[in-house]
Design a protein that fits this description.
heterotrimer, A alpha+beta (499), B alpha/beta (404), C mainly alpha (281), A: 499 residues, six-stranded antiparallel β-sheet, B: 404 residues, alpha/beta, two-stranded antiparallel ribbon, 8 strands
Amino acid sequence: MSTLTSLARAIAQEQQAAQPITTVRHVHISHRPFVFIPLALAGEANAPLAAMAGDDPGAPRLLTVPEPRDRDQRFAFAADLAAIILRYIESYLGDEETAGTTKETRTRYADAPQLLVPNPAGVAFTRLLGRSTRFRRTEGPYAVAESVPVLGRWLTFLAERAEHPASSLMLAVTDALALHWATGQSPMEDLNLGTLLGWIDPAPGLTGVQAAARAEDPVHCPPAGPATDPTFDNEVLESRFLAVRTAKATGDGRAMQRAKATLADALATQLTPTWTLMWRAVDLLRRLPPGDHVATRWNQDKDAFTWHANHLRDGGPPQPRRDSAVPAARRLAGLEKVQAEYAAQRAFDDPLVMAEYRMTGEAFAGTVTAAEPDRVDDSGRRRVLRPRITVETSDVVLAEPGASLTSPARPNQAARVLSVTAAGDRTSVVLELKGGMGRALTPEPGSVPTTGEAVCYATFTDGFQRLPEFPDPEDTPWTHGGPPPQYVPSDDDAQEEWS
Amino acid sequence: MNGTEAWLARIRGRALPRSHNARTIAALASNPGCARRAIMDAAGVDKQRLAAHAGFPASFGQSRFALTRGNAFEAQVKANGAAELLRLLREHLRLPIPEASYDDLSEVGGNISLELRHVRTRNMLARAARSPNDARPADNARLASDAGTMFDHPLLRLEVGGRYAYLEPDLIAFQIRGQFRVVEIKSFAVIDGRADGDKVAAAAIQSAVYVLALRDALAELGIPPAAVADETILVCPENFSSRPVAASLDVRKQLTVLRRQLSRLDRIDDLLGLLPGDLTFDLDPDGKGVPQRAPADLARAIRQVEARYAPECLNTCEMCFFCREEARGRTAALGRDALDDLGGVEQVATVLRLVRRALETGRPAPGPGQEPGQNLGPGSDMAEAADLLRTAARLRAESLGEAV
Amino acid sequence: MDDAVEALERRIDQLRVAVREAVVAGDRDGARALRGELKSAERAWEDALVRMEGGAPAASEPAAGERPGRHEPAGPLIPLREQVHQALSLLTVPAAPRLIVTVHEAFFAASFPVARLTSLRRDEERSFRSAPFARPYYICAALTADLLAPARGLLAISTWPMEKRVIGPLSPRVHFLTAAIRVAESIERIPGSDPDVRRLLWRFAANIPGAAGSAAAMEPRAVAEAARAELEIHEAADLDVRRPAAQRARRQLDDAAQLFGSRLQVSQPGRRAARQRGTAS
């Protein structure tokens, strides 16, 4: 957290209503996202109990597992889920678009799917569901439906993207909301979708505190999963399971139908409220105007989606159980780079995020008090346009002479610090500008800040940073285990117990 | 019954006492400054019942499915003389084949009295610790069986806040090369070598509680702490199966934390000394056991004992909603980071007053001592905090185009 | 739908909420009472449904795709105690109920719930006390070597020599290995290999060093050999504990206590236990 976010929490606490901590939206929200709310059986590693899923708020699909400890029923659940999710994903494998630089173009899908789960635990469940299904074989012993391993590979892909800070292919909705609003409760409590929405968008007549408190009662507001409320398990679910088992033991078909129906009813009561909350969250997020870089990042998501779809189409192997050394290091460095880039982009898109950096002196904002827009530097071999401006700010300025700064308003223009002069609680910074002003020796209109203009300069850019060089996987140093064998799923993988 | 116990019994009232276990000790140690929890646990108060009657019920039950699964896995690992566990110990710690003896300490001749079991546990440990096992020839099974290898359900005890708490661990203390190790069996899965970090952390702190208790038991026999390893063994199901795997857990850090926290837990007598003599959490049950005490009266009694609420309590303490309500308006209730981020100022109202005054006058708020009645945290520098908050508020207002 | 049924459904929903609220409130008595009400409301609902469906008795047509469980109560053709006797005779060592059930399922293709075995020992003891040695055998206890008390959760056969029924610290391992050998030998005697029986053997083999590399590659003979090899290491030490304990049992315990163990009393454990050992109850 930061002082600004914590201050917003303090205000939220006092006002009894959530406070915005951004001025724009920093995640992509699809016009047709797929909402997936899984429930798991308590005590098991990854036993699906039920799920509500779909891309139409008015038509949720309810999937249930009458005997979650039964392996066959788990795979039947996976197959049912695959039927819905794969149809949704495949609907994006049509329209294509051209992307890339003018020199090097590529084709990618024009849009990508988006999977929304309630919370980080939902992402973890999805990752494990992917892990437990992607190695399965569709023939021979322990065969599963053909769609099951495909589902596993897509879920694995999406759950990996969810770890990517800049990706919106799969979002935990609590994270997405908490990125934009501060509540008057702790970050830990923000993991509860119901209370979080209570603070952000309370029901009419309620304060945020009241709405949150109401959402905390698991008997009347079921938790958003994957864990169910223990009193639901003990007082409702257990007897419904028993009815299913009894009907099976006695071979009473009518009783079995009734038992399954009442079980499904009970599970629906635990899922429907969350389904409503999820779409309310989608609406709230949609209402925020998107930041400028959101589309850029979504394009990267489309690239990743296209890559994975092609990989599947071309018969590539499933994701390994564990990354070997080089891919792991590359992924980690990739994530760090993405993280830095993403943070910078958010700051450039959003003055309220930039304010975080102004707190720490990594950026400052102020007014232009003097400008020499036509200044030409003729000391070198060639005469070049190098305007100078003086910015006065009351922010902390940590930049020192020689540093290169960038302004969100003119990201293609570099500003070199010439001098920093503090007087009282105000600081004057003289900057020399380069680039982004056209090719002539006089700047294009508007390309140089004018006197009286409010400007902001940061010590970082939103630009591309090169990835550190890594050896190809074939050249993995022996110290890191040597080149990895290509991952070939074994019989063991395919037959692994899921019980 | 000594004076302290009588006092605690009066505080508990007519309800049946509830006892400590490794989980409650771990929770207590995670928030040692909380006198409310220390007193309630020492008195064996039913916190869930109390919180609910005072108007703040909190669901802290466990799903029967989770319990069933946990028990089934434990039973499986321990079945047939702990055959599966023995294999793991042989593979994981190169336990010599002759060492296969298994002692069940869960009852003494059909008797499950805690004291009796504790005595027997101590006797077994003493015998094991005194056996000349360093020079044990690998093929001499006679000596090995004398010393014992696996001890199921030992009954240990630990001094918490000046009183002994019996620990009913579902574990096997196991002895190899003259050193004991705590084995903890948990039913959460290790998938591709990774397990849920929170669950591993919880298991580690619980194991550490057992290590401490085991060391205490041995210390009473004059055996040094080194006789119990800092490394414990965690046994969990692997991947999506119920096949067990073992992993070593280094709990040195947890031991340090626990020891320090337990010693900081004020002696319960000192805490009691601060309380009114007539304090009781008795619910005044009628003939049918229905509480007759007015909730507001109970709440007043609870408030007599000081709490130290943090959001983490929501995971560990049945009183959490009561204490959270009481702590509303404190920055610490917004999370551990918030208090730091806001310059250590303890009250949200103070934060906002500092901010607004600074914004109005354009000057920093008054320094320490100039604002009476403001409760600042220890080490908080009012002027510095005010500066920080003023900047944050100005930047927020500027960026949003509105006042705070 | 019938008004009464709907009213009952509303009532059931309300009661279910009330039970959960009582649980959250830590009100155990309240929850128990409400659960009782809930149960009778549910029963009334079931009855109402059956009436509505024209009084059709339950358990008529099995639904398509619903196969009944594998091990159905096929009617107790053989009394439970005899089934337990069969399994124990195969194993030749005291065993826990779960193992007894698994062995019986694998070799005799009949199952019974583990829970039923918990009361068996008590029934046997009652029968013995009312008419000692009236039956050719009793399903009895194994005794702990130190206190000659019934060992937790183990069943044995009364006709076995006392040495077989007293349990020292190494005995659980000795039993495990012996059982493995017996299961392996029994498999060798049956032609063909039933998957249930092999699965049972694998559960032993997986935990015996050198017994088998994998379930598929498992050879019963090799399992038995590996088990024998480890057994040899433990046997003598185990007997050293069992033999004197068995002598003590024969000397100190009366007939009933020899079969079902002596029990400590809660108060004054030491003295009472000694007295009990001498006189038995």
